[in-house]
Amino acid sequence: MKSPKTYKEAIEQSHREALYTVGAALLLFLFFWGVLFLTQDSAYSCWGLPLWFWLSCIGGYLLSVLVVWLLVKYFLRNFNLDHKEEKEP
């Protein structure tokens, strides 16, 4: 992705980045509650903590770190919103 050159492009880029971030948050939300729902009856535990804790809390944390890293690396751009207004002819 290239950096925006005009103010309008910068605003459009910020809207795309906001959508990517909301999508990432929705993915993490679904992962967390999905793991809780799917493993609620599991009898497995490790160090006295149930499986849902390990998968949702520890796994969810690791997944969120990975998702944020991917967002920053591939989808978010550093750009300036101080573009001069374009004049329409």
What would your notes on this structure say?
Helix content is 64%, strand content 4%. The protein has a two-stranded antiparallel sheet. It has one domain (7-75). The model has no long low-confidence stretch (mean pLDDT 82). It is rod-shaped, with a radius of gyration of 20 Å. The protein has helices spanning 7-38, 51-75, and strands at 45-46, 49-50. The protein is mostly helical and 89 residues long.
Overview in brief:
The protein has 89 residues and is mainly alpha-helical. It contains 2 helices and 2 strands; from the N terminus they run H-E-E-H.
Rounded to an integer in angstroms, the radius of gyration calculated over CA atoms is: 20 Å
Distance between the termini: 29 Å
Mean pLDDT: 82
Portion of residues in beta strands equals under 5%
Coarse shape: rod-shaped
How many domains make up the 3D coordinates?
1
Q: Could you give a short account of the major beta sheet?
A: 2 strands, antiparallel
- Class per helix and strand makeup: mainly alpha
Order of helical and strand elements: HEEH
Number of strands: 2
**Helix share, percent:** 55-70%
The total count of helices amounts to 2
Poorly predicted parts: none
Strand order across the largest sheet = 1-2
Give the key terms.
89 residues; mainly alpha; two-stranded antiparallel ribbon; 2 helices; 64% helix; rod-shaped
How are the secondary structure elements laid out?
Layout: H1 7-38, E1 45-46, E2 49-50, H2 51-75
Antiparallel strand pairs: 1-2
